[in-house]
UniProtKB/TrEMBL annotation:
It comes from the Eukaryota. The lineage of its organism: Eukaryota, Metazoa, Chordata, Craniata, Vertebrata. Residues 11-81 form the CCDC81 HU domain. One of its GO terms (cellular component) is microtubule organizing center. InterPro entries: CCD81 (IPR026295), CCDC81_HU_dom_2 (IPR040673). It comes from Pedionomus torquatus (Plains-wanderer). Coiled coil: none annotated. This is CCD81 protein. Signal peptide: none annotated.
Length: 119
C-alpha cells in the first residue's frame, strides 16, 4: 500500500516487474536495491555522488546541492533537434542543465571528487 508523505504526496513501491523488460525481475530488484543501498550509505557518510543514467544524463549530489545534468543528445531526441535549438536560448538555465557524455563528471563538481554509480 502507498505511504503518505508530507504535503499529502503518496509514495508507491517500485513495481520491479514493470521495470524488468528483458532481464529477470529478481535481477532488476537486486540491482535497484543494491544501488539505492550503496547510494544511501555514501550520502550518509557525506560523500559527493553522481548517479549516471545511461543515455539520459546524471544526477549530481554534493552536500545539500542536487542537480540534474542531461545529455544534449537525450534532449534533442526528446524535443527534436530543431526545437531544442530554438528553446535553448529562450529557457533560462537550460544550457547549465546540458552536458556532453564525453565530459568527465568529476570535472563538473565543486570538490572534483565524486563517487560514480554504476561503476
Amino acid at each position: 500500500t502507498p505511504s503518505v508523505l508530507p504535503g499529502n504526496k503518496e509514495l508507491e513501491p517500485l513495481k520491479f516487474s514493470q521495470v524488468a523488460t528483458s532481464l529477470p525481475r529478481q535481477k532488476v530488484e537486486e540491482c535497484v536495491l543494491g544501488t539505492t543501498s550503496l547510494l544511501s550509505h555514501c550520502l550518509a557518510k557525506g560523500e559527493n555522488v553522481a548517479l549516471v543514467l545511461k543515455d539520459l544524463g546524471f544526477l549530481l549530489i554534493e552536500g545539500t546541492k542536487v542537480q540534474m545534468k542531461f545529455y544534449h543528445e537525450f534532449l534533442a531526441r526528446l524535443t527534436g533537434k530543431e526545437n531544442l535549438e530554438k528553446v535553448v536560448f529562450k529557457v533560462p538555465g537550460l544550457l547549465d542543465m546540458m552536458v556532453s557524455p564525453t565530459v568527465p563528471v568529476a570535472s563538473l563538481t565543486f570538490s572534483g571528487r565524486v563517487i560514480i554509480f554504476p561503476k
